[in-house]
Structure formats: C-alpha cells, structure tokens
Design brief:
This protein is mainly β. It contains one helix and 32 strands.
Length: about 450
C-alpha cells in the first residue's frame, strides 16, 4: 500500500513538473519585454502572412518575398505547411537572403480560416521584412519574432476608397499555437459580422484568419483583437488612396505591434521629397491625451485615432501608450515629379525599438528611389556610420532639444547603419506611382 501511494505521488509530482516546464517554455517563448524595455525585432522564429494586394492575381507580374538579413553567418528555412512549401536560405555576416513566393501564398479571402501562415526559422537572430510588390502597387512590413507577439491588438489601417472588386481595409491574424481562441470586435460590418459586436474563432498553429471591408468607405482602424495565446496580426489595405481623391492608390501592409509594447513618445521625420505626410495616432485606453510638439491635439478613447499632417520634424507624446503610423500621400497630391511614389504605411518606432545597428537591403530594383530616416540623440551624430563611412552632420536638423533627424538617400543593395548609442530608423522608397516603407529592425 505504501509502495502504491509512493508510486502515485511520484507520478503526480512528475506530471506537475512537466506542466510547469511546458508552461515556462511557452511563457519564455512568447513573453513580451517589461514595460519600457526594448521591443525586440530580431529573432530566430517568425510567423507572417501576406494579405492580398489588390493586384495579386495569377496573370499579373508580381514579387512576393521575404527579405532576411543579419549580422552573422546564418542558415534557415521558410515553410508554408498549407502549401507544402519549404525553402532553405543562407547568407554571410551582414548579408541578406531573399525568399520568393507566388500569389497563392496571399490571404485573399474574408472571414475564413486558412492554412497560409508562413514560418521562418534561423540559426542566428535575423531581421525579416516582407514585400508584396506589384507594378504600381507595393508595400513592405517589418516582421516581429514570436517572442515579441502578444495577445491584444488594435488595428491601425486606412479607409477604403475603391470598393468592389478591389479588397479594402483589412486585418489578418496568424496563429502561433494550437487551440488559440481569438475574439474580434470589428469597427466595420462585413457579411454576418456586425460592427461593434464581438465574435470568436478558434485557430491552430500556422493558420490565418482575415477580415476585409468589401465596401467603398470602410476603415478597420480601431478593431480590437484579443487572444488567449499570443498571435501575430497584420493590417493594411488591398489598395487605397491617401487621401481620398488622389489620382492613384497603393497597397498598405504592416505587422501590428501588440498593445503591451506601445510607447508614449515618438519623434517623426518627413519622407524625403514630400511636402506633407499623413500621421495617425491610435489609443488603447480611454482618456488618452495626445500632444503634437507640446500642444494637446486630442483626447482619445480606446480604438479612437487622431489624424494630422507632418510637414516638418515633430514630436508626438501621450500620457498613455499609443501606436503611430506615418503614411506617404499619393504622389500627385504632394507635387512630386519623376519617381513620384504613391501611398505607403509604416509604424513609427518609439525609443524602445531603437538599437545601435541596423542591417537591411532595399527590396526591388523596380523602386529606384531608396531612403532612410534617422532619429539620433544629439550627442551621437558624429559617430553615425553608413556602410562604415561617416554620415555628414550637415544632414541633421533638430527634432527637439534631445534628438536630431536626417534623411539619407541610399543605393540599391545591402546596407549597415550604426551609431554609438541607440537610435531610430525607418526605410522607404518610391518609384513611378509606387512605394514601400517600414521601420528598421
């Protein structure tokens, strides 16, 4: 009898230990950094998705790819189990690899669960950017590794202006673990899903769920997404105008930052060669006070946003965490010529995203005007290097008393930008009625 009790105790004790180890592994794998700590954008495992570009059709020319870069000799693999697709990649230190797909990888449906999640694994930490490029309609996104994904998001997108048959404002959820419950409260009614009414779905690892506004004027911005396990979420638009009435539209796409990693201070530098950019500031808490260059411009409740125009270096602050997006307007709206570009969307990095070095590569030769904006502490300007060469101090202009900003033109190819202290970077580019942009990682 004593032996039986002893055996049962050992069995139960062992089971508890296994559960604790399993839970600890899950927590360590997906735990976000403590408030105020860096949002890590490099990692060895990612799950991403490619919401459909309006032009993602079998007979259209396109380039859908992942641009993977890093500081070390690296090998890795990209898999899409739902398409039985596996691609290996490798590159040398401070190099990059490009992994391409055809249009079948894109999430084109609305209100449906599919097996279109794209998994990236690497032997050393890497930065991953996605590119969905069509002639006259492109954008890029910065991917977040699984350890930086979370369980609560608010969608930041843009208003749709084209309507059927072009897919509009949308979001796409990518599941990181089996049996994940996701609850969505949409801001736009789509099919049987009613604006303001929560609904839930259950997903397994690698599955995707997308919801797309199929009308002509919907905006998914403010849609609330909550999950019982961390997920990755992407937002944007199949094709839209920024602002309404622009001669041409463009694809918008970014991976959302989880609410737990939002920030309260953002320093903005306009896009090169543009007279004004659109900026949206999104709140996650009721009563969020937002200021622009020290003057209060809005008090927002959860899911609400303020929209303004960026014409010069600026500082956005809030008394509670917010998410900030910067949009390029349609080229004809801002009076550009030549490679005048079109709309793009990127999330402006707050200080917790800053780092001392960025490795990146320009996405495609079809977008010949490539640029980076730098947000650098005033005392560090003399130590900034682009591919080993000093960055001229004459390029920097004040943002506030503590930071300077610069716009740099960069050649097509792979680049490394470094500094003596943490600084911010966004990368972007323009072509003929086309554009791309994302934060550096």
């Amino acid at each position: 009898m004593k032996y039986l009790i002893h055996t049962r105790f050992i069995f139960v004790f062992s089971a508890v230990i296994l559960i604790i180890i399993s839970c600890s592994d899950m927590i360590s794998r997906y735990r976000l950094a403590a408030p105020g700590a860096r949002l890590e954008t490099r990692g060895t495992e990612f799950y991403v998705a490619f919401p459909a570009n309006a032009m993602d059709l079998p007979n259209d020319p396109h380039e859908i790819s992942l641009l993977i870069s890093g500081d070390y000799d690296t090998t890795g693999e990209v898999t899409v189990p739902g398409l039985s697709l596996t691609r290996a990649f490798s590159f040398s230190a401070r190099g990059a690899a490009r992994v391409t797909f055809d249009w079948t990888v894109c999430v084109a449906s609305s209100d449906a669960v599919e097996d279109l999640g794209v998994r990236v694994t690497a032997s050393r930490p890497v930065t991953v950017c996605g590119l969905n490029h069509e002639h006259y309609s492109s954008d890029t996104f910065l991917a977040l590794p699984v350890q930086s994904c979370g369980g609560e998001y608010y969608v930041l997108s843009y208003r749709s202006y084209f309507g059927t048959p072009y897919p509009g404002s949308r979001f796409t959820v990518v599941c990181l673990a089996d049996d994940t419950a996701v609850t969505v409260t949409p801001t736009v009614s789509v099919g049987t899903r009613t604006a303001g009414v929560p609904f839930s779905i259950t997903m397994d690892r690698g599955q995707t769920y997308g919801l797309v506004d199929l009308g002509s004027d919907g905006d998914m911005t403010g849609t609330h997404i909550v999950s019982d396990k961390p997920v990755a979420v992407f937002s944007g638009d199949g094709i839209t105008q920024v602002p309404a009435g622009t001669v041409a539209g463009d694809h918008l796409i970014e991976q959302l930052i989880p609410v737990a990693a939002w920030d309260i201070c953002f320093r903005l530098v306009p896009f090169m060669g543009r007279t004004a950019d659109v900026v949206r500031i999104l709140a996650a808490s009721d009563g969020t006070n937002v200021s622009w260059n020290g003057s209060q411009v809005a008090t927002l409740d959860a899911g609400q946003f303020y929209e303004g125009l960026l014409t010069a270096n600026a500082v956005v602050t809030a008394d509670r965490p917010v998410l900030v997006a910067q949009y390029a307007q349609g080229g004809t709206t801002v009076g550009t010529t030549g490679n005048n570009g079109d709309p793009l969307m990127l999330f402006v990095p707050g200080e917790r995203q800053f780092r001392t070095q960025y490795s990146f590569c320009t996405p495609t030769s079809d977008l010949p005007g490539n640029y980076v904006n730098l947000i650098v502490p005033a005392g560090a300007v003399s130590g900034m290097r682009l591919d080993g060469a000093p960055v001229s101090a004459s390029l920097f202009t004040p943002i506030d008393a503590d930071y300077l900003g610069a716009q740099l033109s960069v050649a097509e190819g792979i680049h490394v930008i470094s500094g003596p202290v943490n600084f911010g970077l966004i990368m972007y580019g323009f072509g003929s009625y086309d554009s791309y942009g994302n934060a550096g990682g």
